[in-house]
Fold each of these.
Amino acid sequence: MAGTAVPLRVSGTVRAPGDKSITHRALMLAAAMRGVSVIRGALTSADARSTAACLRALGVGVSPVRAGAVVRVNGRAWRRPKRSLHCGNSGTTARLLLGFLATKRFAVRVTGDASLRRRPMVRVTQPLVAMGASITLERGDGLPLRIRGGTLHAVEWTLPVATAQVKSAVLFAGLGAGVRVTVREPVRSRDHTERLLHALGAPIARRDATVTLEEAPGWLTDCPPLDLTIPGDASSAAFLVAAALVAGAGELRIEGVGLNPTRTGYLDVLARMGAVVTREALREVAGEPVGDLVARPARLVGTVVTPTEIPSLIDEIPVLAILASRADGETVFREAGELRVKESDRLALLAANLRALGVASEVVGNDLHVLGTDRPPRGNVDTARDHRLTMAFAVLGHLPRSDVRLSERMSAGVSFPRFFEILGRVTA
Ligand code: S3P
């Protein structure tokens, strides 16, 4: 984009890819049920394929996870896989699957790519071991690990940090084993598992940030197979919203986006920063609020993102930091330490890459500070093959007179197939 001074125009109507969190949950639940489930609108990215591949290795029939296709999952009793289960880059695949594997009477080794092997697993193995699973980590706190499930007992677990992956793993273990589980979080994390199970009639209840699944032996295998439509991913939509906000002209509509309030913290922060992103055509799909997002160019001002807001926008901090770099004044993300253990150390890499583009940014303790500027971003960005860093910085690369050189673009396909094609289309 270097050299052009024409204001960026972002316009059109697009559809966000299927929600990643709900796709993982739907595939796994369907695989653990009996009979053929039908899943429409599933995400078809690399992460979703990692889950499908693991389920196939466990003996479950999963039809190809490809663009436009309805995914059919032939749920059955899982069998011991011949090889290690490889979760690719997907933390959600690894952690949620462990919840189900904790109930199986066979041993299996679970691993992932270099990024996933660096991510913490003890946070999920601890409650599963407390319930009765045997788990051996080959080294330190990460993958690979070996799990042998068995007869599990009820558990009441308090999480020191809000994490939907661990919460869901414990709920799935309780569901598979037919035992009562309670999970307490400091702040409520995304609640797709709870909503899906509630919509299916499971005995699940929540109070504030505590969720309890009652003892329900046989519920999972007695439950009729799923017939589910998955909403668009609010996190993927956020990159497109950001492109529309930093533009100088145009209006972008993103259709069919999941608007679960445990995921839309970024829209509240953007409203505080002066953006007008309207939610239209609101409806409900399988217990999840869904709507269209309409975004237009905006003059943004800095804000403070508080610790209690972090879980509701944890995956949007990269793109919010990018927007903060174009806002008037400073933005601070308070207590964002969880970013260190995502697909990369997002806290350090956001600050370093923003600085490389001429933006003042630093990490102080667990807080990320970003000072906005009008200067065109120019420089090299090390994406560390982290999809959300790649997509966030790609948005900046569309600004007039910018020159943002990404170290790679492939990683976007982890969560957003055809991201660059769609971004190119709406900015053309
Ligand atoms: C997810 C939960 C979050 C999020 C991740 C998906 C999920 O992780 O960052 O992209 O689907 O449950 P944590 O639970 O580790 O915070």
Amino acid sequence: VSGEIVCLSGGVGGAKLALGLYRVLPPGGLVLGLNTGDDFTHLGLEVWPDFDTALYTLSGLGDRERGWGRADETWSFMDAVRGWGGEDWFNLGDRDLATHVLRTQALRAGQRPAEVADRLARAAGLTARLTPVSDDPVRTVIDTADGALAFQDYFVRHRAQPTIVGVRYEGAETAGLASVLDGYLSRPDIAGVVIAPSNPLLSIGPMLAIEPLRRALKACTAPVVAVTPIVGGAAIKGPTAQNLSDLSMEVSPVAVAGLYSDLIDGFVLDAKDRGQEPAIRDLGLDCRVAQTVMTTDTEKCELAREVIDFLAQLRTRSGLRHGRV
Ligand code: FO1
């Protein structure tokens, strides 16, 4: 491969593909833009769940079973918080706590989020670039029949159970694009852009609501592809299927491809859904059928190779989406 790959990702599901890409690409080959819609201030600390999931997953510091937080974690801090009658619905492990404390300190000292992210990634020894998609706050708000919930209230405190009637991305309308992403997306020599198999409404939605990111993707001369988060009518992980059906959307790869169709050139469909290939092509998209369910590290690397090959193939074609705008 020549040229970097820019991957836009949410938390646990997206980080699996990000890990595959990280393993398969040469050092410096992966540029990861992370969703910030889940970020929040908790117990006075700045918590960035999707960024930290990527940081821990790529560096091998993460808990492989949970998918979030650190391996070999202990919970003395949470026990003590509980002992004082503090909020204990969101679990900050002792090792994980160090990340939030140092990040909060750096942000309060005036460092930009992208700088803080860069330092953490380097301190973890990563050769990938990791950046929040924006230095400006974007917060996902979930509208339910019983009122609005902040993202983590919905996702963790209420276990993603409430029926959703809408999703808003507060701050997205005025948010800028992180300079690292702006730089890479405007370079003609990048290998391409990948939208990870994350929740399209809760993880990818907050990023694509940032107008400068949409503009940069539309102007990008390298191919842009997305990987399906829906396989066989169900989500691989999390509430994606429920969210789509709550909002009266079809729970199918085609419905997800439709959400991205003005920004992407190609879509990666799971082998189980190969019957939907014509419908994907009807959206004006190229289609690649692959094994998208990633359980083992080998499967993560195999899907990464498939995506890289798809981008390389699209590169040689004329009539990419950018040729039409
Ligand atoms: N997810 C949970 O389901 N319960 C938790 O207590 C929890 C704590 C937590 C702490 C730090 C962190 O980086 C992530 C954490 N997550 C937790 C995961 C996270 O809230 C969600 O998986 C993402 O926001 C969704 O992408």
